């Protein structure tokens, strides 16, 4: 089968550039995991070095190294199910490398019109650069700034307010045509609504723009410089100027500047973790070792890191045509999902719009039935609709999201999309990477075996843990071997840098040994200088050991010492004695069994294990100046003395176990998805709490019962470790069933497509999924997840572009902080909305009574506008500063289908309970004010037609006093002010009860939220200012009022507070009761999480 023509490139250097494959094609290709280095088998170095105790354990447990079958069949292995079948043209479809790795040097020179010694000509390089463009990953097509700004003006709430503004303008036009004296109210209201939308839109755009600038500062994927040879001259150029056919050189510490066919290499090892998620170093050499270009050793991939050694090669792909570029393009094919908060706001807008139209239409019909003209009834309809629009809520939502984003930024979380903040709070499943997220992303010496004891090393990040006894002679010998038999070296100029954070040139294992030596010996580099190296055999896949010979530091001792490290079983077979407490003892069967026990024990922890030995060479046979020859091997490599074992692991971050425990307590399921070995993944998962103590996998149960695995009921296993090969053979339904059956899951040796499938399966079960990642291989899953979280330090640009949030410290614990903030923002938004909705009823009922009972209008449009945008917006926003209730992280994640931002119980409680009390307070104050001026309540009924007749200048009150139209208008404005003050006094009680949704306000404290206290004081001050500031009657229709009218609503405010405290007591005593349907208990699931992790 051949690859689609669109994905193949011309063989000539000036041929047509291949078109980018479709997302669907790439998705299918990525699914064929058999041809991928991480699609079900270990790195080559891992398999060859043999320094893995875990492999020894596999031999005992019956587990085999995954992918062996695929190695035999290349890319032609077959699979089925969730990830798709593997076909022979997988590699050629994925990348245009075709057979570059199999061509001879002469064929490569002919294909790319270059020279393996002199490189390209300068003129041809210029032509190729013009044809192919810069050697850089093309950033995703950016959204124009004006489109971003327009989106801020056209969200759900914004659209509702635009409609309300339009209605106000229409009402203004209708009333102006009738000569209404109050027509300016609707014009002012329309302008105010437009101003609110524009101002909050500008604020939201600024927040997004600021986050974008922070993210732009992380552009570090492509190296700045590359060493190139053109026309036989070697020089450095910007890496983005490289073209296919260029001859380049790289050394340890460099990033690979393009996809390169290796021509020469000396001890070159690369880190493919940004591509595969696998942290093991991989050797690069000129030989073609596999028919797949993705597995052969003679191809180095763009943006991977050269850890050690040197290499020279020809550029065969640049920019988007590289492997990295192809994977990155997958993310562009994954559609963005709506965030939960966006869905909730849409739901809220639907409710508000529906209620507004329903009440407006009802009022319109009533007005028509009782004799109003069509135009007048239409004005009533529009007034009701506008009264229902929560004008201040848009500002509240924007401030809440922005405030939380600011809090997260102070804790090393950058939020690209404000709505993602709340999504994190809704998260029920976190699919986390291992390397760098759960772990420290640095191999560290963890255990040592010498003197027949296993000793534990300090693996803490700050080296604050306990250490072992270092007085043994055996320890001193072992430490000397691991220091001298090591090619890693510190970069210069780092004396002031803590040892764990120093940059080292060398592979991960040797880096760990060097840092360990520096911490225990001190000045490891100086120690080496005291033992000059005279001969060395680097590690290779044939010997599986590394050997060096040194002169001794004592000038009086002319002997040499031979030191060796490597795969423990290979090192042991070259030894005839063992060092125990400084004494050489014969390596008999007893010591071999002790070695095997220790080896299996360390390997069972998922740690990389190396063996160490030494031999003093006699002065007689190997005098000073002896010419050691590694080719002739004129020195002994057997009969050595075994010194001990050292195991290494990438240890968990110190904060991760506590963070995972918090997730469990909060009912959030943490799933590890890694490209690492299953045993290592399981060990790390157990150490951080993803697999809890006492939990067993099917394999563990089978081993305990000594029965075959297929005889164990899988439902009895609480934990489950699934590797990439097993996942490839699973149907989607089987994966979903596994996720449902096993609360504790670990996926190892996974490919990028498999990670995407895992995310989709969790979402199919109704979970809100957060995914962490740092490599290019993670970008599709980051894009597909409900919230993608990229690493700021180790993360690739593709991952950061696909993510919604970036962790500047690469720390999993920061995600838990985000979860708490996300839950808090949902809690506080719900409080703000409940507070905002409550006053809709006292704003609406005046119009209802005005139409049906024909009393003089108790509340004007301008007065409502001041309530919405002046006095109430500050208390509403201040609820965003409310601290979390004490049990917020002890409740299950909210159910998106059941606990909505606005649901029927919340609306009913706000409208028909608290809102009704406020309406009674307003009308009590209104009729009190009217009665004290001579207008008794019964006289007010049916008074409206006479009251509003501006030709009637002698209307009599209950005492027979005559009122002119101007005097009546003055009294009407007084009633507006009285009703306004009544609402504000009740809203003070309302904001106090909204401080908590479940706990008593006394438990939360009245003064912990200082912003709220200031907002209440400001609210009262604004009320006084509007009432008593000179000129207000002529400008905004506010009148001075008697102090008694301030006192009338106070008993109602007290009633609101007492009533809600009783309701909260009922919620706490009777969880799940109807009185608590708007509280967090039902919202988040009143039941606390069980000790077991909940099902999805």
TrEMBL record:
SMART domains to which the protein is assigned, alphabetical: Cation_ATPase_N (SM00831)
Compartments in which it is found: Cell membrane; Membrane
Positions of transmembrane segments: 153-175, 187-206, 348-374, 380-401, 847-867, 970-992, 1012-1031, 1043-1059
Residue span, Cation-transporting P-type ATPase N-terminal domain: 99-173
Known catalytic reactions: K(+)(out) + ATP + H2O + H(+)(in) = K(+)(in) + ADP + phosphate + 2 H(+)(out)
Record's keyword terms, sorted: ATP-binding, Hydrogen ion transport, Ion transport, Magnesium, Membrane, Metal-binding, Nucleotide-binding, Phosphoprotein, Potassium, Potassium transport, Translocase, Transmembrane, Transmembrane helix, Transport
Comp. bias intervals (Basic and acidic residues): 51-74
Claim: Magnesium is one of the keywords in the record: yes
Membrane topology recorded in Swiss-Prot or TrEMBL: Multi-pass membrane protein
One Pfam family it belongs to: E1-E2_ATPase
Compositional bias of kind Polar residues: 272-286
Gene3D superfamilies associated with the record: Calcium-transporting ATPase, cytoplasmic domain N (3.40.1110.10), Calcium-transporting ATPase, cytoplasmic transduction domain A (2.70.150.10), Calcium-transporting ATPase, transmembrane domain (1.20.1110.10), HAD superfamily/HAD-like (3.40.50.1000)
One GO term describing the cellular component: plasma membrane
Region (Disordered): 1-81, 272-291
GO molecular function: ATP binding; ATP hydrolysis activity; metal ion binding; P-type potassium:proton transporter activity
Entry similarity comment: Belongs to the cation transport ATPase (P-type) (TC 3.A.3) family. Type IIC subfamily.
PANTHER family: POTASSIUM-TRANSPORTING ATPASE ALPHA CHAIN 1, SODIUM/POTASSIUM-TRANSPORTING ATPASE SUBUNIT ALPHA
Function of the protein: The catalytic subunit of the gastric H(+)/K(+) ATPase pump which transports H(+) ions in exchange for K(+) ions across the apical membrane of parietal cells. Uses ATP as an energy source to pump H(+) ions to the gastric lumen while transporting K(+) ion from the lumen into the cell. Remarkably generates a million-fold proton gradient across the gastric parietal cell membrane, acidifying the gastric juice down to pH 1.
Subunit structure: The gastric H(+)/K(+) ATPase pump is composed of the catalytic alpha subunit ATP4A and the regulatory beta subunit ATP4B. Interacts (via the P-domain) with ATP4B (via N-terminus); this interaction stabilizes the lumenal-open E2 conformation state and prevents the reverse reaction of the transport cycle.
Protein name: Sodium/potassium-transporting ATPase subunit alpha
Organism of derivation: Canis lupus familiaris
Origin organism lineage: Eukaryota, Metazoa, Chordata, Craniata, Vertebrata
